[in-house]
């Protein structure tokens, strides 16, 4: 996806609340809210069942707001891995948000940095994709921010409600019920639908065996190795396929 053309500050519009676009953003995002809440629920359960206290889990879900990075960090925290390993793992898992920020930034350069920071924090994968489908270019259009608010705030609320409910249930349900496996199941439910093309499949086929073979690495570094190996394999496969397509038309 190409980044939108940047917009100069002189071309920026004065933001006013647009109820119609806010409702449009809400209607667009509503179908995904149940899935977001369910994903937050299993992450909340997983946080508690892997050793965090309810207070720690609540603080993590409110501050981090990144389910995949949270799940990737949990085993490292439990293994008392160095802080740089935990941050590096979360950074790798969340690298896609650098791209999301680059795509959203040209639309909102006229906003104060505090607002941009807030919207960057509550932006999610689906909400960014939905916004860019509605506004593919950075042309100044009144009501863009209202549309974004209609997407991201309900999305954030659905996640937090699901996650906090999961934390409560995880604290109340006995450990012998085996809900600690919920996080792994949630990751599988998200990963499988993302394998939509050959490069993605190649990345999964490489990352899986690497994760198993590197399971004995200290500080769970095998997870980080699997992520890098999978990314490298997917990028290599995509490059090869593009070159082949260019040769054969």
What structural keywords apply?
249 residues; mainly alpha; 0% strand; globular; disordered N terminus; cell membrane
Q: What this model shows, in words?
A:
Belongs to the AzlC family. The chain crosses the membrane at residues 29-48, 60-78, 84-105, 117-136, 156-173, 185-207, 219-241. It is found in: Cell membrane. The chain has helices at 19-49, 54-63, 67-78, 83-93, 96-104, 113-122, 125-134, 144-172, 182-194, 198-213, 221-248. The protein is mainly α and 249 residues long. The protein folds into 2 domains: 19-181, no CATH class; 195-248. Helix 3 (67-78) packs antiparallel against helix 4 (83-93). The longest helix has 31 residues, at 19-49. The radius of gyration is 20 Å and the shape is globular. The chain starts with 18 loop residues before the first helix and ends with a helix. Mean pLDDT is 81; it is low at 1-11.
Helix and strand layout, with pairings?
Elements: H1 19-49, H2 54-63, H3 67-78, H4 83-93, H5 96-104, H6 113-122, H7 125-134, H8 144-172, H9 182-194, H10 198-213, H11 221-248
Helix pairs in contact: 1-3, 1-7, 1-8, 1-9, 2-8, 3-4, 4-11, 7-8, 10-11
In short:
It is found in: Cell membrane. By secondary structure, the protein is mainly alpha-helical.
């Amino acid at each position: 996806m190409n980044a939108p053309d940047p917009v100069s500050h002189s071309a920026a519009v004065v933001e006013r609340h647009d109820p119609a676009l806010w409702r449009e953003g809400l209607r667009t995002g509503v179908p995904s809210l149940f899935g977001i809440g369910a994903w937050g629920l299993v992450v909340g359960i997983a946080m508690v069942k892997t050793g965090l206290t309810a207070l720690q889990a609540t603080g993590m879900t409110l501050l981090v707001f990144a389910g995949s990075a949270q799940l990737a960090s949990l085993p490292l925290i439990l293994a008392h891995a160095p802080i740089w390993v935990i941050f590096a793992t979360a950074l790798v898992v969340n690298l896609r948000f650098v791209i999301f920020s680059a795509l959203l930034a040209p639309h909102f350069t006229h906003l104060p940095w505090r607002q941009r920071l807030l919207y960057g924090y509550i932006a999610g994968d689906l909400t960014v994709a939905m916004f860019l489908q509605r506004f593919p270019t950075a042309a100044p259009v009144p009501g863009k921010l209202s549309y974004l608010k209609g997407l991201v705030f309900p999305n954030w609320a659905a996640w937090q409600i699901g996650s906090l409910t999961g934390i409560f249930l995880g604290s109340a349900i006995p450990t012998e019920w085996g809900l600690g496996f919920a996080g792994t199941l949630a990751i599988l439910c998200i990963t499988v639908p993302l394998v939509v093309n050959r490069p993605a499949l190649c990345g999964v086929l490489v990352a899986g065996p690497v994760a198993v073979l590197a399971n004995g690495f200290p500080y769970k570094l095998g997870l980080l190795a699997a992520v890098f190996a999978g990314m490298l394999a997917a990028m290599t496969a995509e490059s090869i396929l593009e070159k082949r397509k260019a040769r054969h038309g």
